[in-house]
């Protein structure tokens, strides 16, 4: 493909040349999005197992990089998308920025908030984009909650429960503490939804339980965190997954002085006295495509993004406090 020179020093050529680290669900959604947008070109991919990486490269006509270290050093890339296991996000992000790449990283930016903070400074020093994806903010549930919130007046209590029953539990990275991180860190969107809605957190309490089958591999986990926000709201988040659960649950309930909102991924209800009003909830698909498009437009035209790395870092700090609280109890 021929490259067109642009006047922008931030991203000087079009199409934007992209490398992806990872070959799973998120990486595939990214590759699909890049393929359908003429302003971007997937050049190279680094994966984990050779078989999956070869298949991925063949499917998307990308060059195989034998490691993420090799990928980030390539001179023919403008943007690196980090869509692999959480443990490696920080190290890959650091190496990519050091090599003058813009980056998209799937949440969490790092398993360690101190490292996350220094990556944000590094990107700013280097004048590179560091975008931490938070697709939950683009989804139907979050947007329906935001739109309906004024209807219930002063919110005083919000509870979000996601329990994912898995029979049997998969023996994959999402059930390994060293690769996924503490559950509220790996599944950062749960707490990020709260900090996006209610702002600053004053106190965090958390309990957790893991059903280990071997060192570093569990068949189920359960975490429950209570948050007190500076604006007075009490928040509670419950995250569970695996074999010890016999039913899945996904419910976000918000209690306000003028009404209650109850959301499932399918629809919401506004309860006020005798009245119940049904609220539509939009799709949970197409979000990686939307995120990718917004980044392409940001790089080319500096249009606004929907989330800042600082906001992601803040929720990461809250998740870390949850981990410390759980470990102390
Ligand atoms: P996935 O489908 O399980 O893919 C995981 C990727 O990591 C694969 O390329 C896999 O390669 C590789 N991998 C697995 N074990 C590894 C190991 N021990 N060392 C190095 N690489 C390993 O996961 P995913 O859902 O795409 O998630 C990727 C990232 O996106 C995560 O950070 C996740 O938090 C984030 N995210 C995902 C979603 C979503 O909807 N899925 C939403 C928001 C954020 P092999 O298959 O070759 O082992
Ligand atoms: C989040 N989904 C995630 C994450 C992982 C998965 C690892 C990040 C960690 C977390 O927040 O829990 C993995 N999700 C899966 C897998 C399936 C799944 C393996 O649904 C198997 C079906 N993600 C998908 C699919 C959709 C999806 C098919 O893989 C929906 C069409 C959406 N996953 C989705 C969204 C999030 C997410 C929107 C953000 C979390 C949130 O909404 O809070």
Distance between the termini: 58 Å
Query: Topology as H/E string?
Result: EEEHEHEHEHEHEHEHHHEEEEEEEHH
- Dominant shape: globular
Q: Number of helix segments?
A: 11
- Structural domain tally: 2
Structural class label: alpha/beta
Give the name of the CATH superfamily of the largest domain: NAD(P)-binding Rossmann-like Domain
**Beta-strand content:** 25-35%
User: Class of the largest domain, according to the CATH hierarchy?
Assistant: Alpha Beta
Unique bound compounds: NADP nicotinamide-adenine-dinucleotide phosphate, biliverdine IX alpha
Poorly predicted regions? none
Count the strands?
Answer: 16
State the gist of this model:
The chain is an alpha/beta fold and 329 residues long. 34% of the residues lie in helices and 32% in strands.
How would you sum up this structure, described in words?
By secondary structure, the protein is of the alpha/beta class. The protein folds into two domains: about 5-135 and about 285-305, 3-Layer(aba) Sandwich (Rossmann fold); about 140-285, Dihydrodipicolinate Reductase, domain 2. It has eleven helices and 16 strands. The strands form three sheets. The chain has an eight-stranded mixed sheet with strand order 10-11-12-9-13-14-15-16, covered by helices on one side. It has a six-stranded parallel sheet with strand order 5-4-3-6-7-8, with helices on both faces. Strands 1-2 form a two-stranded antiparallel sheet. α4 runs parallel beside α5. The longest helix is centred in the last third of the chain and has 20 residues, at about 310-329. The N and C termini lie far apart (about 60 Å). The mean pLDDT is about 95. Biliverdine IX alpha binds near residues 187 and 284.
């Amino acid at each position: 493909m021929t490259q067109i020179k642009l006047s922008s020093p931030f991203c000087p050529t079009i199409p934007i040349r992209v490398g992806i680290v990872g070959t799973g669900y998120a990486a595939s959604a990214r590759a699909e999005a890049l393929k359908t947008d003429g302003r971007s070109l997937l050049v190279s991919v680094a994966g984990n197992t050779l078989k999956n990486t070869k298949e991925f490269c063949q499917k998307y006509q990308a060059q195989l990089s034998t490691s993420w270290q090799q990928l980030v050093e390539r001179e023919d890339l403008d943007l690196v998308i980090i869509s692999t296991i959480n443990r490696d996000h920080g190290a890959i992000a650091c190496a990519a920025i050091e090599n003058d790449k813009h980056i998209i990283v799937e949440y969490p930016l790092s398993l360690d908030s101190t490292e996350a903070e220094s990556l944000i400074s590094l990107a700013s020093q280097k004048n590179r984009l560091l975008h931490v994806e938070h697709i939950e903010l683009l989804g139907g549930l979050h947007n329906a909650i935001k739109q309906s919130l004024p209807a219930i007046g002063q919110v005083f209590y919000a509870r979000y429960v996601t329990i994912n029953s898995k029979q049997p539990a998969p023996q994959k990275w999402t059930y390994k503490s060293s690769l996924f991180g503490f559950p509220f860190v790996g599944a950062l969107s749960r707490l990020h939804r709260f900090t996006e809605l209610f702002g600053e957190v004053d106190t965090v309490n958390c309990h957790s339980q893991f059903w280990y089958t071997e060192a570093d591999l569990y068949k189920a986990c359960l975490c429950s965190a209570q948050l007190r926000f500076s604006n007075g709201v009490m928040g509670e988040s419950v995250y569970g997954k695996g074999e010890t659960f016999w039913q899945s649950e996904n419910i976000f309930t918000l209690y306000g002085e003028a009404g209650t909102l109850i959301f499932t991924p399918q629809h919401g209800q506004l309860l006020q006295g005798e009245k119940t009003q049904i609220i539509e909830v939009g799709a949970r698909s197409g979000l990686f495509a939307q995120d990718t498009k917004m980044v392409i437009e940001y790089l080319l035209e500096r249009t606004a993004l929907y989330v800042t790395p600082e906001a992601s870092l803040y929720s990461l700090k809250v998740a870390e406090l949850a981990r410390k609280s759980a470990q102390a109890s």
